[in-house]
Write a structure and sequence with these properties.
Layout: H1 2-10, E1 15-19, H2 25-31, E2 40-45, H3 49-54, H4 59-65, H5 70-84, E3 88-94, E4 110-117, E5 122-129, H6 135-153
Parallel strand pairs: 1-2, 1-3
Antiparallel strand pairs: 3-4, 4-5
Length: 154
């Protein structure tokens, strides 16, 4: 994450996160880097649909595509960027080895990561499957995927 933070500092860009299944893991990785306070504006952990909606995610998107979808991840990344005025927004949603009784879906263990680039009004995203039985290893994998997207666009 050091190289990403350094590049954001150099380019005077900012970043914010809205995370669900990672519980703030991506925000933590960013803020562990010295100097991150120059580029990190805000991190939201929105486990519930209610708070995703309160943070700006369109309820119709959740209703149509489910909370576990690329469309919802894209909404999360864009809405957190808009809310904070950040250059980039990161949205993460999905299930990690746990059935969500409030959101029954057919594709358990699917993860959705989206990075919104405000300058181009565009989301870059990836969907993949949780591959390990531990939450920690899956969160590490999500962080790697997020860093890969960021490296490609910044």
């Amino acid at each position: 994450m050091q190289d990403i933070v350094n590049k954001l500092i150099k380019e005077c860009k900012t970043i914010s996160t809205m995370e669900s299944c990672t519980g703030g893991y991506v925000a933590n990785a960013i803020t562990n880097i010295p100097g991150a306070s120059e580029i990190f504006k805000f991190g939201a952990v929105t486990y519930s649909n209610e708070y995703k909606i309160k943070m700006g995610v369109d309820k119709n998107i959740i209703d149509k595509y489910t909370v576990y979808s690329l469309e919802t991840a894209d909404e999360m990344s864009k809405k957190i960027s808009v809310f904070t005025g950040s250059s980039y927004g990161i949205g993460v949603t999905g299930q990690i080895n746990r059935v969500d009784l409030n959101n029954i879906v057919y594709n358990d263990n699917q993860i959705y990561v989206s990075v919104y680039d405000a300058a181009f009004d565009r989301c870059y995203h990836e969907m993949f499957e949780a591959i390990d039985d531990t939450r920690e290893k899956n969160r590490e994998m999500i962080l790697i995927k997020t860093k890969d997207i960021l490296r490609k666009i910044i």
